[in-house]
């Protein structure tokens, strides 16, 4: 029996991830500031545990310890100004569902991602998915840090792409620092500090000011720092797609696991096949069927990462309408730079490590 097709009357969701519990620091939506300045390791552990339950705090290379940390909470954004004379190591079991931007004024930051260490020396910018980091090693120096919720950044990316974000954003950790993003990161930290003081005063509107500043930072971040969606953004024409293209995109995402043809997509979009092809070439930079294949590959990747060990790669491939194992493996590697089995083993290795 052929699969039943779904005609979506509402936009596709901005993301398709299993729910992640937000860490304590992101659940707190009140606008306020917290300051920590101490030479006591034990006091730092107690104070930091309030925002990062279960955090492990260790001094840097020596036995001495010093930390000065000011944190500003503003809705979906948390900013930090960190200074340390001795260096400090953090291991956070409850990882924030957010992306971190860190401008290194001086010093060095080492992060452990999937059992591999990455080091950046100031002046530099670090952009990373905080859920991927198991250990943060801050060397003596000063740092300005912005945490943006994944929900916020994914929604902005989905708006640009006119499609859901089904993979988390993986920024290139070795990319050279971009001065625009560094300046915006520092400006967000500076304005956040000012706005926490202004909240509640007559005429003060911190949420609106921060919203515009944050949007500018997200736009710059997604445009200039390489990531796994950069090629999609490069293909997109600036400006919104016409309604028939958006209808086609909704239809494809709603029926990617069904056996659909270009005629089905054109009928759902209320245009001819030729009109559909021309619209996709102009506004999406690829054909409708290539777009469908891309959506199916992303669905297979998400399923492989979420699959139980007993579920085979072949079962996942068939679910997403890939009938030839060899071609599926070739297309998968071309799209993601790894084989289906490598994608699956990465997740199991991360789970064992974390």
Q: Helix content range of the residues, please?
A: 40-55%
What's the pLDDT, averaged over the residues?
Answer: 85
Alpha carbon gap, first and last residue: 43 Å
Order of helices and strands: HEHEEEEEEEEEEHHHHHHHHHHH
Order of strands across the biggest sheet?
1-3-4-11-6-9
Strand content: 15-25%
SS field, number of helical segments: 13
Radius of gyration of CA atoms, rounded to a whole number: 23 Å
Overall form: globular
Count of beta strands: 11
Given as residue ranges, the uncertain stretches (5+ residues, pLDDT < 50) are: 8-21
User: How does the major sheet shape up?
Assistant: 6 strands, antiparallel
Structural class by secondary-structure content: alpha+beta
Structure, described:
It is a single chain. The chain is 43% helix and 21% strand. It has 354 residues and is an alpha+beta fold. Strands 1-3-4-11-6-9 form a six-stranded antiparallel beta sheet, sandwiched between helices. Strands 2-5-10-7-8 form a five-stranded antiparallel beta sheet, with helices on one face. Strand 7 and strand 8 (116-121) form a beta hairpin. Mean pLDDT is 85; it is low at 8-21.
Topology:
Layout: H1 24-27, E1 32-38, H2 41-49, E2 56-59, E3 67-74, E4 77-84, E5 88-91, E6 98-106, E7 108-113, E8 116-121, E9 124-129, E10 133-138, E11 141-149, H3 150-161, H4 179-198, H5 206-224, H6 230-235, H7 243-254, H8 262-269, H9 273-283, H10 288-306, H11 313-319, H12 325-336, H13 340-353
Antiparallel strand pairs: 1-3, 2-5, 3-4, 4-11, 5-10, 6-9, 6-11, 7-8, 7-10
